[in-house]
User: What shape does this take?
Amino acid sequence: MASTQSPTVNRQWVLTKRPAGDDFESCLEWREAPVPTPGEGQILVRTIYLSMDPSNAIWMRQASYIPPAPLNEPMLGLVLGEVMESHHPRFKAGDIVSGLGGWADYAVTDGKGWGKVPADGRMPLLAFTSVLGMTGMTAYFGLYDIGRPQAGETVVVSAAAGAVGSMVGQFAKLRGCRVVGIAGGAEKTKWLVDEMGFDAAVDYKTGGPKELRQALKAACPNGIDVYFENVGGWITEVVYSLLNLRARIPLCGLISQYNAAEPQPGPRNMDQLLVKRCRMEGFIVLDYTDRMGEMAKEIGPWLAEGKLKWKVDVDEGLDGAVKSLRKLFSGGNVGKLVVRVGAEPAR
Assistant: This one.
């Protein structure tokens, strides 16, 4: 299907100032500009899907594992798109690619950090925003390289109904582990057990730390061997109280902290990591991009055999991207969240 968007207008969300708290609306301005022209060694990419990620909130504010998103430029975002024009030896017009682009219809890039997506029709393009993209890599390498789960161990995942968490739980099950998810709401916990195959899931919204600890202890009668950390805050404090000797903690994210106007206190029981000789390690998925083939080789057969499920929530329209971002922090999505910006090309 051909794109119906004008080839001369580039709609975009421009970052005009750094947010304080979660005031994204006041920091992003909707603008239209001419479609940029690629120069020598560059490509022009038409955005098909724009990934919504909690890290977007960090990029707006400050330097992290990448420099902060520049002001008065389109907001940064992970993009899956189509090459419309190429002056780069590695890409040609019609290639489907993914990389760090912008909240815009079109982007010009020198191709660094961008890769081609197999558009052979065997997998839907949405899979490359999720299980076969950065989401799958985050779950796969964070769990297997750092968590190192062994058959029979108990793995707990926070933000378990999110894009990464739902993948982590399935990867752990495929290694023979007992898997327990922490999520917000009865609908999500039911989905984790009934659809994603988790052994149990607990709802942190049904009470405070005491209630969560009781529920988590009942779901983890043998304690916790691996905790895949996505949230931080009081939920982490509860999990620490149930860790086993030499537990491992892949530190993927701290979503409860990202929009706080002031620095938040960390868990008060960090002594548990000491006395139980636990290992916690932070990681960034970009550290593993050169190993993507390794992941694809293992999970490809799982996908073909139906052993691995994935879900993508698709919001329609670039103009609603700010509202879509908010859903990540209010628990309004299940699985991976993307915005459909343009039409998929005919395949």
